[in-house]
Amino acid sequence: MTAPTEEDLWNRLGSARALPFGKGQIAATESLVRTADAERLPDLQYAARLSLVRAYTHGGEPAKSFVPFAWCLAKHDQGEGNERWDYILFWSFKSIVTSLTDFPEVPLDRTYAVLDDMERRYRAAGYAMNPVHQHRQIVARHVGDHETAVEQYRLWAAAPRGEMSDCVGCEPSAKVAHLSRYGRFEEAIEVAEPVLGGTFTCSEQPNGILSSLLLPFVRTGRLEEAARAHRQVYRTIRHNRLDLDLLPRHLRFCALTGNHVRGLEILERHLGWLADAPSPDVEMEFCAAAALNLRLVADSGHGGTTVRRTDGEISVQALHDELSERALGIAARFDARNGTSEQSDLIRDVLAADPIVDHLPLSLTSPRPVSPPRTPVAPSLPDTPEELADLADQHSRLSAYEAADAAWAKFDELCPEPAGSLLARRLSGSATAIVDTDPEAAVRDWLRAAELFAAEGDEVARHTAASKAGLARYQLGEPESALAALAGAAEALAGLGDVEQHVRALLRWSLALSGNDDLDAAFEILGRAEAAATEVPAELTARLLLLRGELTARSGRLDEAREPAGRAVDLFAEAGLAEQEAWARLIAGRMAAASGELETAYATVRPAESAASPGLRAQVRHTLGLLASDLDLREEAVAHYRGEVADLVEAGNLSGAALAQLGLASAAERAGDPLTAADAAEAAIEVLEQGDDEDELARARYLLAGAHRALNQPDPALTLLEQVLGHFAAASNQPAAGQAAETIGDLLDELDRDGEAASSYGRAAEYYTAAELPADAVRNLRQAALSWQWATETDQALSVLAEAEKSAADLDGDEPPIRWERAMVALNGGKLLGAAERPAQALPRATAAVELFLALDATTEAAIAAGLRARLLVDLGRPAEARAATQAAIEGLPPEATEQIERLEYILANLDAE
User: Fold this and answer.
1) What CATH class has 713-812?
2) Nearest-CA neighbor of 191 among 156, 163, 221, 164?
3) Which 3 state secondary structure label does DSSP give 312?
4) What is the pLDDT of residues 428-464, one digit of tens each?
5) 348: burial class by Cβ within 10 Å (0-12, 13-18, 19+)?
6) CA 331 → CA 87, 109, 252, 272, 347, distances in Å?
7) Which of 93, 194, 467, 799 is deepest in the core (most CB within 10 A)?
8) Contact indicator for 52, 19 with CB cutoff of 8 Å
9) DSSP 169
10) What is the CA radius of gyration of the chain?
11) pLDDT tens column, 114-128
């Protein structure tokens, strides 16, 4: 094997520096140092060791940086260091000072000596004193010399920034730490605000500055900003052991905001990372913050709860005691070194801290804390069982079930052992209360009540109870016996003179027929009910109207259906029946949406959100979320879905809440809020993984991948997308598999992993072809061809291009999407063949692309194609034709396409200049 040349070794250094921070980069750089030493290459020995200082500092092993730094410093002083690396050498002073402070075994005098040396060298080199003051205040603050720390901060803030100053994200982050230590929280936020909305070029930001701001945000009441900062940062750092130093701030934040249960979850997830703590200082901070959360969990009565760790399980209380002792022990070592009690005092303060906020919801998917409900004033109730039964029946008819329950509760106190008609009425009331949760028991109670009413000679009550039992039987899946019972009860009531009960029985019969999909019969019975309803309560008339609207809509006559549904809304409103009005609004709104009148639908349903009971409100909010999404009311859609999630979680309907979370995730993604989208999708996945709905689980993973992508977290996004692709491919859902593969290709393309992107586009094309979606297949083939070209695989690119061109030519139809694909294939063909130095073959494709895009009014693409055509004509030695064609393209564009015209005029000017 040929020995590497010196150039090869310098290239290895560049490759090592480009690696992510961590053990891999450290190993690669250490290996290079050994090789440089063996080959006796002085410049490389020096440069490699400076790179090793950087690798150790940022790779979780800062203690190892001291030796190579001292070696380089000695070489520099001996005149053997290359001046081109002086900047990196002097920059390293800052991390060395900080790291020396973090290890109690390092004498304090050594740290001060390095600080003095840093200042001397910076002054001699003409560097600003800004970073010197910064690091003097760090050391002073660490040892508890507060007067010096405050003065050095003043000097630091007054000194101009220079070449050695930290980046625009890290310097404010360090200032926030100082100001927070002295309770100057408003100033801390003011220092940070100018850079929060900017673009960071440092790998430590914005996670560092947002983590530093957690305490100031909470202390100044900026609770939503605090919650958002925590969510954003923790989502990014939780998979990276090198960010262990940030976790204590998030653990303390959880404890101080009443989220110690979440703090316990975070602790358990990262407890194993302590084995690789980069320094005793980080270890101490983590142990103290973790112990604080454990103390709060124990104080809430859960000290016996167990926590998993690598050596088994340990109780919350025992782990608290262990970590507290560990933190205080390290603090004592620092104080012994420093000659002060500063670190022990700080750790004791952390361990004894109490929450600043009782509970801060950390996710927009969580229910918001609400004020304790006022104790309602108990309504006055009658004093006789008969009057109480009348009142309970009245409330039940109006769906006021809580009021009915209150009346029956007093009935039970006054009449614990009813008999005769009172027992029958009590059984009927009991059946009404349990019919949704235990319909079999409800049927038994109603049938027993019917027998008792018959014995008492109350035929109206007898057949009314039988009618109710019949509808419950239908809900139990007994349509034949149910319809017979409903028909018999309705016919019997027809001759008994009680119009209202007769109409209600007909209404139940029609409802059952409707549920049995016998719409003609349902209409007939409903017509009989309407004809009989001459003098009935407005509430009953509204129910009849609402059913007519629903039956008419199911018959396909949507416009006709909306009129009775709208009248039902008005009647319920006039009667003051808010719950029934909310239900009617929901039905009427859905009818309007089905007719395509989305704005009307939204306006119709919107008032129901505040009027509906919790059970109905979730349905209302779901419908509003769908409508708001369709109307592009993005923030409103997020709010509605968030409310639906809260309703379903409160009701204990976790599976329903998981599906609602998917609606919230989709809406939040469209609203540009990927954090909420990620939270919602992850919450859904936790539930869906316990069930068997694999399609919804795949959908949740796809949404979470999109959120990761928006948050610039490509690795977890790719992992999730591959899971989605695997599911849909195994299920032979070719269109969905194609979409997943195409999304993977897009993401790989964004990461400049061109060969992998090309392969994934190729997979997508195969899935789309199998799904008989040829236009989608063509789109991915042309993308694959471009990606192969960018991967410098020209032969593969041209091969796939030929396949794309053939597939595009075979597309049926002349619809705009088909024409678009043909135009894009022509444009890509011109680009690829031009890059392959085949201008004669590229030219007709570029020319065709111009014409195709102009026909589609795609002026931007037409201008791009025209520019390509001009360049190809020049390459072919035909500049006059290039000018003429470009001028013709300008004249072919509409006047309002100013940007495209300017592009072509610029090209034309350059052609004229040649």
Assistant:
1) mainly alpha
2) 156
3) strand
4) 888 888 888 898 998 999 999 999 989 999 999 999 9
5) middle
6) 35, 19, 17, 21, 7
7) 467
8) no
9) T
10) 37
11) 999 999 999 999 999
